[in-house]
Amino acid sequence: MADQDKGNTKKEDVRFIAAMLFLTVLFSVRKGEVLDMILDTLRAVFVCIFYGVGTVFLIIGITKKAFKYNPTRIQIIKWAAALAAFFAVSQFVHEGFLMLTGQMPR
Fold first, then answer.
1. How high does pLDDT run on average in the chain?
2. N or C: which end of the chain has fewer CB within 10 A?
3. How many other CB atoms are found less than 10 A from the CB of residue 101?
4. Torsion of CA 42, 15, 90, 43, to 10 degrees
5. Rounded distance, CA 90 to CA 82, Å?
């Protein structure tokens, strides 16, 4: 736990962040022509990461004083990566539902 307090990364932290980013990219892949697919995928990954980082800072800003904690840089990155993966998976499930029910906009 002392390594976490100093902000040093551990192998488990790097693996966790890499796995979450892999899931984010995996569930953000779009179809279409190659250039459009790449741009749409990058846009989706950017939005998921933006939502993840924004949500983490919003939650920290709201709760830091009340609960008197000081998260490390690694903890913030891990939380943001996990939330980005969560947003990517939930967007994928939502689009799948819209496709199955015939509500997907063109």
1. 90
2. C
3. 8
4. -10
5. 12
Q: Which ranges of the chain does DSSP label H, i.e. alpha helix?
A: 2-6, 11-26, 34-67, 73-100
Q: How far apart are CA 77 and CA 17, in angstroms?
A: 8
Radius of gyration of the CA atoms of the chain, in A? 17
Q: Which two tokens stand for residue 18?
A: 């890499």
pLDDT digits (tens, 9 = 90+) for 22-73: 999 999 998 889 999 999 999 999 999 999 999 999 999 999 888 988 999 9
- Structure pTM? 0.84
Q: Tokens representing 36?
A: 């459009």
Q: CA-to-CA distance for 4 and 65, rounded, in angstroms?
A: 21
List the one residue out of 82, 63, 67 whose CA is nearest residue 13.
82
